[in-house]
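Duplicate of earlier report; E3 ubiquitin-protein ligase parkin input re-posted below.
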Amino acid sequence: IILCGKVLGGGTSLRSLLLGPQTKVINAKCENCDEETFAEFNFKCVICDKVAVPLTHVRGYGGKGECSICGDETMKVVVDVGCHHETCIDCFIAYLEMAYTQQQFVIRPPNGYTLTCPVYGCRGCVTDAHIFYLLGKERYADYQRRATEKFISLENEGIFCPYAECGAAFLWEQDT
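Output:
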């Protein structure tokens, strides 16, 4: 990490700089000029060098435990939606595909149209919609469309275009 052109010490980590899952800017105090400043960063693909979105629910795993779906104890990559029910990546993708196919997403304010933890009865849910990238670009775009339609249909002022194949939606605002 570089601030004002100076590389921070090896003990500095993103976690110690209070980096949130959606943060692109880290507030910091520069060691050189003693000014409040920031460092901006982006994750980039090592192959194409384009900006990539980090999947905050996905992480490497080297601890003890088992997949909450299949019971695998040799998980290398897990998905944890914040409730500590860890699921191996293969099972979570299968769970995502099943939920997508069967339209089992739920509305959970403030997260919107989302997916619950795969463990029955758990109140945990996906808080970062980018996890749906695991379904592929086309299905991710379809998920976004469905989520928007669901949001608009739940709003009292939500109106869809009456023309078939249009799909446009509007929120009606009355003049006051």
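Helices lie at 89-102, 137-154.

Merging into the original ticket.
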